[in-house]
Every structure is written in C-alpha cells, then in structure tokens.
Amino acid sequence: MKVLDITAMLANGTVKFLLRSPLHGLVSNRVMLITVSGRKSGRLYTTLVNYVRDGDTITVVSRSHRTWWRNLRGGAPVAVRATGEGLKGVAEVVVDDKEAVAKALLALHPRYSAERAARRAQDRVLVRIKVA
To answer: Where on the phi/psi map is residue 84: left (φ > 0), alpha (ψ -120 to 50), or beta?
Structure first.
C-alpha cells in the first residue's frame, strides 16, 4: 500500500469520526457522510463527500470513476450525516448535464473560475438528494 493511500485512509477516518462526534462543526459545513445500499449486495456503504445544501436539496459532485454513486441510478434512498444531523432522503444521479455539474462545482468551490468548473465537470457526476 502506498504512503499516500495510508495517509488518505487516516485522514478520511479522522473526518468520519469528527462528523459523528459533538465536534462535527469543525468539518460539517462542507463535508458529510452519505450511506447508500449496494444494488446487488444490499450492503451499506458510507462515503465521505463534499456537499452544498439549499433548503431540502443537498448537492454532491463526485468523480465519474468512483463507484458509490452508481448505486443511485434511477433514484434510491440514502442516509446522510450533515451538520450533526442524521437525515434520510432520495438521491438521483445526473450524468449528462455538464452545465449543471459545473454550476454545482462553482457552489462547492466559490474560488473556481467558470472555465475551471467547466473543465472539471467533464469527468464528474452530480448527485441531488431530496431530504425529508
């Protein structure tokens, strides 16, 4: 295992711990946990993601090569842990609307230029979660 992989695993584990603790405020304004069920296995997978919330809609952008979001195609129930709250919702994936992905990237990363967001949108997907 590479040193970079070990460092990332330790960092992710630390952030996951913080998000589940009373200290969540240190990281939970932009980072959350999303739990999805595997379509074939039914196994629960919890992933650390960046997000933006607007009312009852949570927006997540993921790299296309990641696999967690593929379980959400066609809409699927999810559980999220954001700002210290455990929420349930329904997620849907937007793959082909690169303009919507770029717009979400600008919301996630306000310092991005429109050109940078458009370039990065090419290998990303958008996940919209309606929370109840």
So the answer is: left
Q: Pick the closest to residue 64 from 127, 129, 130 (CA basis).
A: 127
**What CATH number does domain 3-131 carry, 2.30.110.10, 3.10.290.10, 3.40.190.10, 3.40.640.10?**
2.30.110.10
Q: How confident is the model at residue 3 (pLDDT cuts 50, 70, 90)?
A: very low
What DSSP element (H or E) covers 3?
A: helix 3-19
Window from 8-17, 57-66, 68-77 with minimum mean pLDDT: 8-17
pTM: 0.80
In angstroms, how far is the first alpha carbon of the chain from the final one? 40
Domain ranges of the chain: 3-131
